[in-house]
Design a protein that fits this description.
The chain is an alpha/beta fold. Helices cover 41% and strands 21% of the residues. It is globular.
């Protein structure tokens, strides 16, 4: 290990609804026609963060935790849909994607009495769990995969205890856009949609193709 280098401890936190909106965009709308490969995304993040913080020593940058937060419908609600089998298959596919990538899932019951149904308590759970993990595991960097401005206080809290926050940003017209407030609060911003489309440069852009394999 060279002088000044250290082991970087990284956590990746997924706002599940935002992640799957992005992934579905690249699968069904974008020319890539593929879901995001989470394992490849983690590998890319390791290289990118190491270039910023550790002179490019990716072997000394480790993702120690990855967590996914989302609301989930009850079985009764799924059975009442037009095609319950399709919904159950979708849930199983998403669970497998997370399992293979070593991501821990956290599901909260949907508020099914609302019209339309809505997530309930997911944002609070994500924020509390993330802060608790950061305090006890002493992460150097937390990658927060969300676009919602509501998480700006979480970003400030994390950085207040010395944990830098990276926001992968997206600007997908009529589909999803990362909040400017989040971008302004974060220590690091990764313009991922621009990198994928080749409108931004990165020394590890050769790894971006793996995100869609």
């Amino acid at each position: 290990m060279h002088q000044g280098q250290k082991l970087l401890k990284v956590a990746v936190i997924y706002d599940g609804s935002f992640f799957w909106r992005i992934s579905n965009y690249y699968r069904f709308t974008h020319e890539r026609q593929s879901h995001l490969n989470i394992s490849a995304l983690h590998n890319y993040l390791r290289h990118h963060i190491s270039a910023i913080e550790n002179d490019g020593e990716a072997s000394l940058c480790q993702i120690q935790e990855a967590h996914f937060f989302r609301g989930r419908f009850s079985l009764k609600a799924v059975q009442a849909t037009r095609d319950p089998l399709k919904q159950l298959e979708t849930d199983r596919f998403q669970d497998q994607v997370l399992m293979w990538a070593g991501v821990v899932s956290h599901y909260q019951p949907m508020n099914e009495s609302a019209n339309p149904p809505e997530e309930k308590g997911v944002d609070i759970t994500l924020a509390l769990e993330t802060y608790d993990l950061a305090v006890h595991r002493h992460f150097d960097v937390v990658v927060l995969f969300t676009g919602a401005a509501d998480f700006s206080p979480l970003v400030r809290k994390l950085q207040g205890i010395g944990c830098r926050v990276m926001i992968p940003s997206f600007d997908l017209p009529n589909y999803a856009k990362t909040s400017q407030r989040l971008i302004e609060e974060a220590a690091y911003v990764l313009p991922l949609s621009e990198l994928i489309d080749g409108s931004a440069d990165d020394e590890y852009e050769h790894l971006l193709g793996d995100l869609f394999r």
